[in-house]
Amino acid sequence: HGLAGVPGLRLPHWLQPDDTFTPNHAYYPVFFSDAGARSAAEAALKAVHVLPRRYFASGLFEHPVYAGLVDAMDLPVAARLSQTVLCLPIHHTMTADDTDLVIDTLRAHHSA
Fold this sequence. Notes:
This protein is an alpha+beta fold and 112 residues long. It has helices spanning 35-47, 76-84, 96-111; strands at 9-10, 28-32, 85-88. The longest helix is centred in the last third of the chain and has 16 residues, at 96-111.
């Protein structure tokens, strides 16, 4: 809820609680408006010692073993998402203060 409404930041629809879905909380991916915004947010988080990950930062179709088999233009949504995703830390030792630091950093960074 703390990240709702942050300009340029989109939460995946499947992370919205409902009666039919229970996330396993292995990742908390968020999506930025473009790769530059994602990189800037990553730098802002690292500056306060929060280490997000660029999981899925390159699509499987981009790996050399698949070269020539799939064109990124054939998968525009996957290509766009792989360039704008950032997985925020989520783990069993995170405190409420840790969560607030992530939220506050992203809110401050995107309101500037």
